[in-house]
Every structure is written in structure tokens, then in C-alpha cells.
Write a structure and sequence with these properties.
This protein is an alpha+beta fold. It has two domains: about 240 residues, no CATH class; about 55 residues, no CATH class. It has eleven helices and 15 strands. The strands form four sheets. It has a nine-stranded antiparallel β-sheet. Helix 5 runs antiparallel to helix 6. The chain is elongated and about 75 Å long. The N terminus is likely disordered. InterPro entries: G2P_N. Pfam families: Phage_CRI. This is Replication-associated protein G2P N-terminal domain-containing protein.
């Protein structure tokens, strides 16, 4: 039975994200993006898994359609950031998920922008521990046989204290709620997830608190060297606000980012900004009126900002269409009119900047993953396309 349009009772889904007026972070030449969790598949791998437990899927005739070993954890340095490995003997595909650099370095805060180098180190380490093999060189394996299924990119912004970081997170959460975004807040983390995170999501969280919570139990049960390492790491992470862009398999495929070559050079910085600039995080006006509040504001818009600062019911003064036009005008000025004025508002658009990116502390630098000098020729660039911005 066909359904006529008049019989459809469900309200159509509407797009709640606004056209972005942000340009992302203005990275300086020395700034680097950190790779965190990466999920990837490697084809052409030979591995005898006859002694391991497996999951099988068969059809009605008993023909095996899918076979995979159960998840095998591989312990990372100092017992942190384990990698999880599966193997499909039918397609000879090895699947790995985890923080590449975290498993090697014992920490995932200050890692590296060199994805290919991290993959080579992890695959070599797993080959020694698990005993699998492949017939091609490591370079060819990474260039032609590795398919990326998830990539997390992150930057660490340094603030004066963990308390101020939590103040910023509370305001970010309130603004995203006012913008009617698909978001959630959990403890000291704020998640912005367009389309429920099917394609990508962006997370703001207190990295100092995260490191303290995860490393304290480990440092109590380990030797002197790991204990000193974790103490130093906790000191370096105080007042860090972490911003992560998490790209899922569907988005990587859509944007042509499943190949490792697409992430060479400064491509990670460009890709990070392509998504981060969509987050509707702007400045919120503070309550009270001063002459400085009207500097640079045209005469026709001054009544609007005055009413917002007084938290007057603006819907009683202006029509919906007029308010939409005013919001668009102030978004260009990086001001959020939807959020109510607050007594002490943090100017998020001014504080969440690349100038606060904390470089890797000297005590945590690993020469294997240090940045390479800028190449003379331009690196391969990823396919540019529209990102999924519907919430």
C-alpha cells in the first residue's frame, strides 16, 4: 500500500548547523597536530591463527562467508594504550585499532604528525610479537596495502589552570545546547556529533584530568622509571584543553582519506581545520553595558547588542526573520546572539587559538617521530570535498 504525502505524520528533519564564519586555527609553522587513535586494515598478511578462537559466519549451506579471530590485546609501553588486533584468514587481512604513538611512547598527549612513520613502527612491533609475515617491503605495504578506517587528530591548548579549562568546557557545552546541536557532556568532556557522529565528531576535554585519572593507578603498581614518567606527564598536562577531530570510516572514504599518502606533509593540519571550523563556538556577550561594548558596532545594530546584554526577550521586539538576519550579522563578528548574556563570559573565539598550542616538552620528545624539515615540493593533498555538517 502506497502512502500519500498527506499521510506522513513525522516531522521532517531540519538542519540546525549554521554556515560557518570561522577559519579554524591559524597554525604557526612550528605547530603540529597529534595523531591519536587510528584504526587500519593491512591486506596480504600471512598468519597462522589455528590456535586462536575465531568468529565464523556461514550461509544456509554451511559455506563460511566471514571469519575473524577474536580481539587480541597487545600491551603498550608501561601498560598503557593497548592495541587491539584481529585477523581474517579468508581475506588475509590484519585489523588493528588503538593509539599508534601512545602504545610506543606510553602516552598519547604529545605524539607526532608523521602517520606513516607511526604505522611502520607499530606494524614492525606487531610482526615481532605475533609472528605474522608479508611479502612486500614496509614502504609498499603502507602505501598500497594499508586502508585507514578511523583517524583521530588532536591539538593541546595550554591554559593557566585546570579550573579555567573546566570553565571553558561548561561554556562550550551551553553554547552548543543553545545552537540546538547534537551534543552531549560527560564529566569533563563535551562531544559535538553531527549526524550522531556517523561521519565525524569533535571533542573538547580536560586532558590534564584525563591523564591524572588514567595514570595514577598505573604509577602505583609500576617501578621507579614508569612512576617518574607518569609524574612528569601529569605535570606537563596541567591546564591542557584537548580538541580532537575523530573521523570515521564513512567520512574517510567519502573524502578520499583512506590512503596513508593523503596524510603526508601538513595535510593533517589542513584536515583538522576543515572540520574544526564548523563548530559553532563563538563569543558570548557579558551582562552590563559599557561604552567599550559598542566599539565597531554599526548604529543600526547597537540596540540589538544592548538588548542581548540585558537579556531582554528579543523575540518580543523582532520578528523571527529579523532575528535570523541579526544573528547572521553577529556571527560574522564572532558573537553568539542565541546564548544569553553572562556575568563572566569567556571569549571563546579569542582564547581557543593556535597561539595556545603546547609543543612537545623536551623530556617527551622521541627522535624517531620528530618533525621533518619542510620539503621543497608540495606533499600529496587529500581530496577536498564538503564535510557532513548536518546535526
Amino acid at each position: 500500500m502506497k502512502t500519500r504525502p498527506s499521510q506522513i505524520v513525522n516531522a521532517p528533519q531540519t538542519t540546525t548547523s549554521k554556515k560557518s564564519t570561522q577559519t579554524g586555527l591559524a597554525f604557526r609553522s612550528a605547530d603540529r597536530v597529534n595523531f591519536d587513535t587510528v584504526e587500519f586494515a593491512v591486506s596480504g598478511v600471512e598468519w597462522d591463527v589455528s590456535g586462536q578462537k575465531r568468529s565464523l559466519v556461514s550461509n544456509g549451506d554451511g559455506e563460511v562467508l566471514f571469519s575473524s579471530t577474536n580481539r587480541l590485546p597487545v600491551i603498550g609501553k608501561y601498560g598503557m594504550h593497548n592495541l587491539h588486533v584481529r585477523y581474517n584468514p579468508l581475506s588475509k587481512t590484519l585489523s588493528v585499532e588503538g593509539s599508534l604513538f601512545g602504545s610506543i611512547l606510553g602516552q598519547n598527549v604529545f605524539t607526532s604528525q608523521r602517520l606513516a612513520k607511526g604505522l611502520a613502527c607499530v606494524i614492525s612491533c606487531l610482526k615481532k610479537k605475533l609472528g605474522f609475515s608479508f611479502a612486500v617491503s614496509m614502504q609498499e605495504l603502507i602505501d598500497k596495502h594499508v586502508t585507514l578506517r578511523r583517524v583521530d587528530l588532536a591539538v593541546n591548548l595550554q591554559f593557566k589552570s585546570g579550573r579555567f579549562v573546566k570553565t571553558c568546557l561548561r561554556q562550550i557545552a551551553r553554547q552548543l545546547v543553545e545552537q540546538d546541536c547534537a551534543m552531549r557532556k560527560e564529566f569533563t568532556s563535551v562531544y559535538w556529533s553531527p549526524r550522531n557522529g556517523r561521519y565525524y565528531s569533535i571533542i573538547f576535554y580536560d586532558k590534564g584530568e584525563d591523564v591524572r585519572r588514567k595514570s595514577l593507578p598505573k604509577s602505583k603498581r609500576t617501578g621507579e622509571e614508569p612512576k617518574k614518567f607518569f609524574e612528569n606527564l601529569r605535570d606537563e598536562c596541567g591546564g591542557l584543553l584537548r580538541v580532537e577531530v575523530r573521523l570515521q570510516s564513512a567520512e574517510l572514504k567519502k573524502q578520499g582519506l583512506q590512503n596513508v599518502k593523503a596524510w603526508s606533509g601538513n595535510a593533517p593540519r589542513e584536515i583538522f581545520n576543515r572540520y574544526y571550523k564548523n563548530v559553532p563556538v563563538l563569543n558570548v556577550v557579558s551582562s552590563g553595558l559599557t561604552c567599550a561594548d559598542f566599539e565597531g558596532v554599526p548604529d543600526r545594530l547597537r540596540p540589538v547588542i544592548a538588548l542581548r546584554k540585558l537579556n531582554a526577550p528579543m523575540e518580543m521586539m523582532y520578528s523571527e526573520r529579523t532575528m535570523a538576519r541579526h544573528r547572521a550579522e553577529f556571527r560574522k563578528r564572532k558573537i553568539d546572539l542565541k546564548s544569553p548574556a553572562r556575568e563572566k563570559a569567556v571569549p571563546l573565539a579569542k582564547v581557543l587559538t593556535a597561539s595556545r598550542i603546547k609543543p612537545t616538552p623536551p623530556s617527551l620528545v622521541d627522535a624517531r617521530f620528530a618533525p621533518l624539515p619542510d620539503a621543497v615540493s608540495d606533499p600529496p593533498r587529500p581530496v577536498k570535498g564538503r564535510v557532513s555538517r548536518t546535526t
